[in-house]
Design a protein that fits this description.
With 558 residues, the protein is α+β, with helices and mostly antiparallel strands. The chain has helices spanning 20-25, 44-59, 72-85, 122-125, 129-137, 163-168, 190-197, 205-214, 237-248, 251-260, 267-318, 376-386, 408-422, 431-439, and strands spanning 3-11, 28-34, 63-68, 91-103, 106-109, 127-128, 143-154, 178-181, 217-220, 337-340, 343-347, 359-363, 367-370, 426-427, 490-496, 519-522, 538-541, 550-551, 555-556.
Length: 558
C-alpha cells in the first residue's frame, strides 16, 4: 500500500542570532533533488513540484542547484559539487521530492531507475538522507533546512506512521519540527503551501508555521532568524505572540497573550477583541436557543394543522349521507402552491459531466409548484382510496414528513389519481422546470451561494439529518418560497435519463427524453453530501426503484 507523507524537517545549527545587516550579506544555498522515475510509469508530479519550489527559492535569493531524475552516481556527484561551494555561517536548504524508504531507522532516497529487489540493497543503491544532512553540518551553517515531500515506504512490518521518517533523520540533534498534510490528494500540496504562505514581508519560522496551519498543514517548527524574505526589522517575542493570537482570533488566544505579555503595545487591542468576541458568542448562543424553540413550535403546529385537515375531510365525507362513509373519496390537495415566475435561465453546470453543456431554457408563465414535498398524510389517502400496497408502513407514522419509498411509476399514479378526484391536472415537474424552481433566480453552485457552509440552514443532509426524513418546511425556503428543494427526500421528475444535455429542449415544459428504462431524480436527500445538494446535480434510476430517501412533489397545470 502506498502511503503519502509530507513533512518539513528543520535542523537548526544556530551559531548566533543574526542581525538584519548580517542577514542581508550572508549567502544562501539550496540543493533541490527530485526523482519521478521510480515506478514503471513514472511520476512527473514529483519533478514538477520540485521545479516550482526551485524557482521560488531562486526568486528569494538562494543559489539553487537542481538534480532531477539522476541515478546514484550522478546524484552523489551533484551533491559533492554543491557541497564544495558552501561557506560557513550560511543558510543551507536541502530539498527532496520523490520516493523515500525508511529502514533501520534511516531515511533513504531512491535514485532514478533504481529497482529495489531487497532491503539490504539500500546501502549499495540508495542514498541516505541522514548522510547528506550530516555532510552539510561540516560547514557550520547558521541554519540548515530540510524540505521533504515523499512517498514513504517503511522497512518495518505493518508500519505506516510518517513519524518514522522524522525519527530516521536523526543526525541533526537540534531538530524539532515537522509538517504533515492530512488530506488525501493524488499529488503533494506541501511545496505549494510553503510558497503560497510566504508573502513579500519577513517570515520567521513561527509566523510561517501559523500560515501553514491556516492552510491546513499542521506543524511544529522551532528556529530563530530563518527567513525567505530579508526583514526590515526583527520581531520581538511579543510581536510573534501577537501574530499567533491574531491568527487564532479567539478569546482563549487573546487571554493567553495577555497573561504572557500584560503590558505590551497590544494590551488594549487584545482586551477590546476579547470583549467583542464574548459579546458575539453570547448573542449567538441566545439566537440559537431562540431558533431551536421556534423550530419546535412550528413543527408541532404543522402536525396539528395536518391532523385538523384530516379530521375535517373525514367529517365532510361522513356528512355526504353515503351508506358506506369509508367508501367516500378522501383526498388531500397540496395545501400551498407557489406561482413560479416566467423567465429564462442557464440550465446545467460544467462541474458535473452529465450536466453539460450549459444551455438556455425558457420557462413560460402559469407554472405552479407545490410548496412542500408530498407528505405521508397525503400519500396515505391515496393508498387507502386505491388499495395500493406499501411495504414500509413504519415510514408513514409521521404524517407531516415527506413521503418516501415511492417509485416513479407510483408517483405518476398518485398524480393521475389526484387529478381525477379533484378535476384538476397534477403531474411531476419536468427536469428543466424542477431546476429552474430549485435555483430560484440564482446562478451559484447552491441555491444559497457557492459555499456549502450554510447548507444546514436549507437542507436535511448526511451531516444533520441523523438518518431519517423530517417534517416538511422546518428549514429555510429558497427565494421562490419552496421548502426542501435540497435534501430531505430526492424527487422524481417526469423526464427519462440522458447522459448529458446535448440536444436538450429549450422550453422547460418539454421533457429531455422519453427514456422508459431510467428516470431522473433531483435534489439530494438525507444521505447526500454537499455536491448532491446542487440544483444542477443529476441522478437517475429505473421507474420501479424505491428508496427510503426518494419522494416527489407536484406541478399544477393552469
Amino acid at each position: 500500500m502506498r502511503i503519502f507523507f509530507l513533512f518539513l524537517f528543520l535542523g537548526a545549527s544556530l551559531l548566533f542570532s543574526a542581525t538584519v545587516e548580517q542577514m542581508k550579506s550572508e549567502k544562501r544555498y539550496a540543493l533541490v533533488i527530485a526523482n519521478g522515475l521510480v515506478t514503471e510509469t513514472g511520476d512527473d508530479k514529483a519533478v514538477a513540484s520540485a521545479q516550482a519550489l526551485a524557482s521560488f527559492l531562486k526568486s528569494k535569493g538562494f543559489k539553487t542547484v537542481t538534480a532531477f531524475n539522476l541515478d546514484r552516481a550522478e546524484l552523489i556527484k551533484t551533491f559533492r559539487s554543491f557541497d564544495k561551494e558552501l561557506t560557513p555561517n550560511a543558510i543551507v536548504t536541502l530539498v527532496y521530492s520523490g520516493r523515500m524508504i525508511v529502514h533501520d531507522s534511516q531515511a533513504w532516497i531512491l535514485p532514478a531507475r533504481m529497482k529495489l529487489e531487497g532491503l539490504p540493497q539500500l546501502r549499495l543503491s540508495a542514498v541516505s538522507f541522514d548522510f547528506l544532512l550530516q555532510k552539510l553540518q561540516r560547514h557550520t551553517p547558521r541554519v540548515s533546512i530540510g524540505l521533504v515531500d515523499a512517498f514513504a515506504y517503511s522497512g518495518k512490518p505493518n508500519t505506516t506512521d510518517g513519524e518514522l521518517i522524522l525519527d530516521a533523520i536523526k543526525d541533526v540533534k537540534e531538530a524539532d519540527s515537522m509538517v504533515r498534510w492530512n488530506g488525501k490528494a493524488a499529488s503533494s500540496p506541501l511545496f505549494g503551501h510553503v510558497t503560497g504562505a510566504v508573502g513579500n514581508g519577513h517570515d520567521d519560522m513561527d509566523s510561517l508555521a501559523d500560515k501553514l496551519s491556516k492552510a491546513g498543514v499542521h506543524s511544529r517548527i522551532a528556529a530563530a532568524d530563518f527567513y525567505f524574505n530579508v526583514p526590515s526589522k526583527l520581531l520581538t517575542p511579543a510581536d510573534k505572540a501577537w501574530q499567533r493570537a491574531e491568527t487564532k482570533n479567539s478569546v482563549v488566544g487573546y487571554e493567553a497573550f495577555l497573561i504572557a505579555y500584560p503590558n505590551s503595545a497590544y494590551t488594549q487591542t487584545a482586551t477590546g477583541r476579547i470583549n467583542a468576541l464574548k459579546a458575539k458568542e453570547k448573542s449567538a448562543a441566545a439566537d440559537s436557543a431562540k431558533n431551536k424553540e421556534l423550530e419546535k413550535v412550528e413543527a408541532e403546529l404543522k402536525v396539528q394543522q395536518a391532523e385538523l385537515a384530516r379530521l375535517k375531510a373525514e367529517q365532510k365525507a361522513l356528512s355526504n349521507g353515503t351508506e358506506n362513509a369509508d367508501a367516500a373519496p378522501l383526498y388531500y390537495e397540496p395545501t400551498e402552491m407557489v406561482a413560479i415566475p416566467e423567465g429564462i435561465y442557464l440550465m446545467g453546470s460544467d462541474r458535473f459531466d452529465n450536466s453539460k453543456p450549459v444551455h438556455m431554457v425558457t420557462v413560460q408563465a402559469g407554472l405552479k409548484m407545490s410548496t412542500y414535498e408530498v407528505s405521508n398524510l397525503e400519500y396515505s389517502a391515496f393508498l387507502k382510496a386505491t388499495g395500493t400496497k406499501y411495504r414500509k408502513k413504519k415510514l408513514l407514522k409521521n404524517e407531516s414528513a415527506a413521503v418516501a419509498f415511492v417509485s416513479w411509476e407510483e408517483a405518476m399514479a398518485y398524480a393521475a389519481w389526484l387529478s381525477k378526484v379533484t378535476g384538476k391536472t397534477y403531474r411531476l415537474p419536468t427536469e428543466a422546470e424542477w431546476e429552474y424552481a430549485a435555483r430560484a433566480g440564482s446562478d451559484t453552485l447552491y441555491t444559497w451561494g457557492d459555499s456549502a457552509a450554510n447548507a444546514a440552514q436549507y437542507a436535511w443532509m448526511a451531516t444533520n439529518a441523523h438518518g431519517f426524513v423530517h417534517s416538511r418546511g422546518l428549514l429555510q425556503p429558497n427565494a421562490f418560497g419552496l421548502f426542501d428543494m435540497a435534501g430531505n427526500v430526492a424527487e422524481w421528475c417526469l423526464d427519462g435519463a440522458t447522459a448529458d444535455y446535448k440536444g436538450a429542449p429549450t422550453k422547460a415544459e418539454k421533457t429531455g427524453s422519453d427514456n422508459d428504462a431510467m428516470k431522473i431524480i433531483r435534489g439530494g436527500s438525507i444521505k447526500s453530501q454537499d455536491e448532491g445538494l446542487s440544483p444542477s446535480y443529476r441522478d437517475s434510476n429505473i421507474p420501479t426503484y424505491r428508496s427510503e430517501t426518494v419522494g416527489f412533489r407536484l406541478i399544477l397545470e393552469s
